[in-house]
Amino acid sequence: MRNLTLLTDLYQLTMMYGYFKNGMTENEGVFDLFFRPRSDITYTVTAGLESVIQYINHLCFSEEDIAYLRSLKLFDEDFLAYLESLRFTGDIYAMPEGTVAFPFEPLLRVRAPIAQAQLIETALLTFMNHQTLIATKASRVCYAARGDAVLEFGLRRAQGADAGIYGARAAVIGGCTSTSNVLAGKMFDIKVSGTHAHSWVMSFPDEISAFRAYAKIFPDTCLLLVDTYDTLRSGVPNAITVFRELKAQGHTPMGIRLDSGDLAYLSKCARKMLDDAGFPEVKICASSDLDETVIRDLKMQGCRIDLWGVGTKLITSADNPALGGVYKMSAEIVGGELVPKIKLSDNPAKITNPGVKTVFRLYGKADNMAIADLIACDGEVIDTSRPLRIYHPEQTYKNMLVNDFYVKELLIPVFLSGKQVYHSPSVMEIQQFAKESLATMWDEYKRPMQPHIYKVDLSDQLYDLKKRLMARYSEVRS
Q1: CA 411 – CA 114 distance, rounded (Å)
Q2: How far is CA 424 from the centre of its chain?
Q3: Least CB-packed of 106, 115, 243, 265 within 10 Å?
Q4: Using 50, 70 and 90 to split pLDDT, how confident is the model at 477?
Q5: What is the distance between the alpha carbons of residues 347 and 316, in angstroms, rounded to a whole number?
Q6: Which residues in 344-425 belong to E strands, given as ranges?
Q7: DSSP state for residue 3 in the 8-state scheme
Q8: Which among 273, 199, 189 has a CA at the least distance from the CA of 236?
Q9: Cβ-count burial of 326 within 10 angstroms (0-12 exposed, 13-18 middle, 19+ buried)?
């Protein structure tokens, strides 16, 4: 594991230096990591916690780090000596990877000496923003595929090696069945998949020679790319010829891949040709700049595609290149007393929720479907024995009465007093958890176009605290 302690913005270190010079390094702060609402991202599938765990466990300034910071001529030797002995000693609570989460909800909550909490902000946002974004994009693609296998093919278009590796992991959490990324397969014990490129076909005198050579090497996993020259007049007929030869030898061919052209038309024609030739079991895989919108439209057109290879637009989240998660102070502990903090703004979406918080999800007892979420003060208990009225956090005239429900608390302890107390499941176990989490959400919340907005309320206690602080600081401003 690389030491990523310097994976931070310079202003985190200059603030730490300021805390040090003012004798504040051990003052405790509470910070929330959350994302703000956007019209194009109405829910997320959380990912990145495993990277957070590895980062925190390896957090320390090496001799080389200290030497580099000394060369900047910004910090004195006393501060550099303080950094040499720094280790994380705080608490981190988080939603487990694969949890469906919504705007303003803390995906992760940190309580630590303020210098430590400040230092880790940038890295935590880097891990959570990127991997949550890709897991969410993958979940949307897989939702559009309606149960078909989705293969993550994006490494060559990823924005760097780490984005390709951890993007592949996040994509599998979001629902992809495999990745083309061999290193990610090794690191995370996830299935890898792939066949051959057009260059393989072009390396032989003709297409059928290339197909025969490939089938000879991989007779039981033979999936042929059929669009190098002419899909319907050459590629599919040659694939059928080779499939007949494989079948005569006792093997079962796997499928064909379409990588260009009108995928709806070509897949329907190819399906008929394969069925007429006696290969109804052969799968049709499609690639070529796919995303959830293209897949949805192809399905509406009656395409006959069984497998989807999705690359560029998934691994880069092309239509939503940034989640926009933020990390904001919500409380300070002064002399053992917790002091809630709030950030005000002329933009209501940028006004933060104060205090130490948790998140409850309300489920209907009859159907086990999610009804709403409640951001509450830590330590609150929700009385499920009586109806609960919840409100829109800003437009409070919008409200609903919830009956016959139960709750689950979404934030769990990951580090306590600097010690790891949570161990991540395998990636495939996280994927299953994500599927179960998504299954509790009605389709209306998951549709890609104009989805219904899931209800997220503030508890009465938190709402009252927020109003009091807003009023207090508004008086100061005036």
Answers
A1: 21
A2: 15
A3: 265
A4: low
A5: 29
A6: 357-364, 370-377, 388-391, 399-402, 405-409, 412-416, 419-420
A7: -
A8: 273
A9: middle
Long-range contacts of 291-299 (CB under 8 A, 24+ apart): 291/141, 291/318, 291/319, 292/140, 292/141, 292/143, 292/144, 292/448, 293/144, 293/448, 295/141, 295/144, 295/145, 296/144, 296/448, 298/263, 298/264, 298/267, 299/144, 299/146
Contacts of 386 (CB under 8 A, 6+ apart): none
175 pLDDT tier (thresholds 50, 70, 90): very high
Letter for the amino acid at 115? A
Largest CA distance in the chain: 86
Here the tokens at position 230 are: 């002419």
Instruction: Tell me which residue of 406, 401, 414, 400 sits closest to 360, measured CA to CA.
Output: 406
pLDDT of the residue at 245:
98
Non-local CB neighbours of 249 within 8 Å, separated by 6+ positions = 219
Residue with tokens 């998140």: 359
Spatial distance between the Cα atoms of 113 and 92, rounded to a whole number of angstroms: 12
Pairing between β-strand 412-416 and β-strand 419-420 as defined by DSSP bridges: antiparallel
Best CA proximity match to 172, nearest among 152, 147, 202:
152
Per-residue pLDDT tens digits for 438-474 = 999 999 999 988 899 999 999 999 999 999 999 988 7
Amino acid at 180: S
The pLDDT of residue 475 is: 67
- pLDDT per position as a tens digit, 390-405: 888 778 788 889 999 9
Which H or E run contains 219? none
How confident is the model over 207-226, as a mean pLDDT? 97
Dig out the tokens for 321 from the structure. 């290149």
Structure tokens at 56: 């925190």
Model confidence pTM above 0.85 = yes
Is the pLDDT at 39 greater than 80? The verdict is no
349: exposed, middle or buried (C-beta count within 10 Å: 0-12, 13-18, 19+)?
exposed
**Does the pLDDT value for residue 10 go beyond 90?**
yes
Token reading at 435: 């599927």
- Do the beta carbons of residue 227 and residue 196 sit within 8 Å? no
| Mean pLDDT of the 49-65 span | 98
Q: Is 317 left (phi over 0), alpha (psi -120 to 50) or beta?
A: left
Those residues whose C-beta lies under 8 Å from the C-beta of residue 141, and which sit 6 or more positions away, are 150, 174, 175, 176, 290, 291, 292, 295, 308, 310, 314
CA 81 to chain centre: 37
